[in-house]
Amino acid sequence: MRLFKYSKLLLLLMMILPWFSLPFLGKDAFKRFLPAGLFISLVVRIVNFIAKKRKWWWWYQTLHPRISGVFPFIWGPFLVGSMWILKLTYGKFFRYMLLNLAIDGAFTYGLVYYLQKLGIASLVRLKKINLLLIFTCEALLLYGFQIIKDKMIGEQGNKE
């Protein structure tokens, strides 16, 4: 397939392009939601470590031999996308979960197919519905982290 030779470029673009949207996120939203985005990125990295050991999915393409192929997803669309989703829906849990389900469903039932066709990644011992369940648990963790963070900062603000 001709597109296979562009898969590294695609991974690089997927990591870099989301960062160009951050000026539109706003400085205050960036500061408020960055810790939650970093937290969930760490969680995703841990889940990917477990997935590699259990062969849930496999990344064929990488940007560098020592860096996992999931790296561009974590530090690109996942981190930036998490901050955007929180900015757009935080405080409206039902809307938050609905948007997450739509995005995660599009990734699971749409993008995974193309990642496999391009030779970037594929599911091995994990069904798509299980991947969607993992994403849903991560979304709940993200929202919960932000709630706890806001409460802790609110309590610190009241003490001063």
SSE layout and pairing:
Layout: H1 7-16, H2 22-25, H3 27-54, E1 57-59, H4 71-89, H5 93-117, E2 121-123, H6 128-159
Antiparallel strand pairs: 1-2
Give your account of this protein's structure:
This protein is mainly α and 160 residues long. 74% of the residues lie in helices and 4% in strands. The chain has 6 helices and 2 strands. The protein has helices at 7-16, 22-25, 27-54, 71-89, 93-117, 128-159; strands at residues 57-59, 121-123. A two-stranded antiparallel ribbon has the order 1-2. Helix 5 crosses helix 6. 21% of the residues are buried. The model has no long low-confidence stretch (mean pLDDT 90).
* Rg for CA atoms: 17 Å
Helix-strand topology string: HHHEHHEH
Q: Count all strands and give the number.
A: 2
Question: So how many helices?
Answer: 6
What keywords describe this structure?
single chain, 160 residues, mainly alpha, two-stranded antiparallel ribbon, 6 helices
Describe the structure in brief.
This protein is mainly α. The chain has six helices and two strands.
